[in-house]
Each structure stands twice: as C-alpha cells, then as structure tokens.
Amino acid sequence: MRIVILTGAGISAESGLGTFRDKDGLWTRYDLSEVATPQGFARNPALVHAFYNARRANALDAAPNAAHRALARLQGARAGVTLVTQNVDDLHERGGAREVIHMHGQITRALCAACDHRWEAPRVMGRDDACPACGERMTRPDIVWFGEYPYHMDRIAEALAACDLFVAIGTSGEVYPAAGFVEEAAGFGAETLEINLEPSAPGRFDRVITGPATRSVPAWVAEVLGG
C-alpha cells in the first residue's frame, strides 16, 4: 500500500512549537504580512530576520515527540510511505524520518535572493550576511512565504496520483494548495484519513481520528503495522 502523509503545525505543537491558527497562535501575535511575505522582507529585513531567528531558536531547542517518531517508524518499516510536511522545523528528521518533502522550506536553511544558492543557516541570521556563493548581501530564510509557490509540487502531485491512502495530520485544511490534497488523492481513488484534535472540515475525509498527535498518531501507526 502506498501512503502519502501530510503533516501540519499540529504535529509539532506538543513539542512546544506554535501553530498559526489557534487563538494563541502566530496569526494572533504577528502581522504575517510584515514577517512572512517578500514585500514585508523588502520593507524591513531586520524585523523579518528577528522573527525567524526566534522561530529557529525555538525549533532547534525543541525535541521530536512520539508522533514524529511513530511516522519515522512507519516509514522505516514500510516501503511506499511519502512524508510531506508544511512545517519548516526539522523534527521529522530528528525523529528518525529518512526522507521528508518540505513544501514550505526549512527554518534551518538559508537562501540567497540574488543567486538562489542554499546552505545551512546559522542559528542567528542578519540583513548583512553575505551569500557564500556570490557574496551578495541578500540572504533570507529558505522559507516559502505567502504569495510564493511551494517547493516540490511535481513530486507531491506524482505521489498523490499513485497513493492508496492519503493521511492529513495536524493541519487546519485552510491553506492551499495543501488544503486541496485530500480531494486530489480521492479523485485518483485513494482512501483518506484525517488525524487531528478535531475534524477540520466534516465530510471531507473517509475516516477521522481525533485526539492529541502524540497519542493518536502512534496508535494509528501501530494499527497499520499490525500492533
């Protein structure tokens, strides 16, 4: 069975990383048009770097939880498991996942806006950092901002077209194009499953498992693996 798993902020929340859409999430505490758009970066790069430096420190200091480790166990035990994440942290990798498609980039990576070179980001980035490839001082976090096209969409589309089961874990189902993955997979005949604190949109999935990710994801993985 070929499985595509999409994870969102909810899987990392129990590791202490903030979600965007909860009442105390990042949406409520920041104007994301100022810190998560190319226009905001052009207006105030120092502010944007400060925002992502704080998020990077939070992510680096966090630890993978039982849900991350369970998905890594599933990927290690079964062929044909494609793990796609909307998250920019590296908790899946540190939890043992062997391959993760980061459709929104990675907080631990830096990008040169001048030459498109990418490299491992230092813990603290600044507006005067020079690109190690071209020397231009146009470095930014390697993050897909609002208004930019997500990464690896061709790979994701191929996996969705070929999968037998699509699973969405800890995602609000409100941000496109990821919000449309369930209909895309279902259109190709896949079964669909949502694992979340509560259903994101009743009726969109064939099956819904509710509860904290650290409990529900390991239980589902054990079910798939037969105990």
UniProtKB/TrEMBL annotation:
Q: Where are the transmembrane segments?
A: none
Gene Ontology CC: cytoplasm
The cofactor(s) it depends on are: Zn(2+)
Q: Which InterPro entries does the UniProt entry name for this protein?
A: DHS-like_NAD/FAD-binding_dom (IPR029035), NAD-dep_sirtuin_deacylases (IPR050134), Sirtuin (IPR003000), Sirtuin_cat_small_dom_sf (IPR026591), Sirtuin_class_III (IPR027546), Ssirtuin_cat_dom (IPR026590)
Q: Glycoprotein among the record's keywords?
A: no
**Which residues are Zn(2+)-binding?**
112, 115, 131, 134
Which amino acid positions bind NAD(+), per UniProt? 8-27, 86-89, 170-172, 213
Q: Which residues form the Deacetylase sirtuin-type domain?
A: 1-227
Give the reactions, separated by semicolons, that this protein catalyses: N(6)-acetyl-L-lysyl-[protein] + NAD(+) + H2O = 2''-O-acetyl-ADP-D-ribose + nicotinamide + L-lysyl-[protein]; N(6)-succinyl-L-lysyl-[protein] + NAD(+) + H2O = 2''-O-succinyl-ADP-D-ribose + nicotinamide + L-lysyl-[protein]
Extract the SUPFAM superfamilies matched here: DHS-like NAD/FAD-binding domain
The record ties this protein, via PROSITE patterns, to: SIRTUIN
Enzyme active site: 104
Q: Which UniProt keywords apply?
A: Cytoplasm, Metal-binding, NAD, Transferase, Zinc
What subcellular locations does the record give? Cytoplasm
Q: Give the E.C. number(s).
A: 2.3.1.286
| Record's cofactor remark | Binds 1 zinc ion per subunit.
Residues bound to substrate are: 52, 55
Listed GO molecular functions? histone deacetylase activity, NAD-dependent; NAD+ binding; protein-malonyllysine demalonylase activity; protein-succinyllysine desuccinylase activity; zinc ion binding
> What family does the entry list?
Belongs to the sirtuin family. Class III subfamily.
What the protein does comes down to:
NAD-dependent lysine deacetylase and desuccinylase that specifically removes acetyl and succinyl groups on target proteins. Modulates the activities of several proteins which are inactive in their acylated form.
For domains, the record's comment is: 2 residues (Tyr-52 and Arg-55) present in a large hydrophobic pocket are probably involved in substrate specificity. They are important for desuccinylation activity, but dispensable for deacetylation activity.
Protein's recorded name: NAD-dependent protein deacylase
Tell me which species this is from: Roseicyclus marinus
Q: Please name the gene that encodes this protein.
A: cobB_2
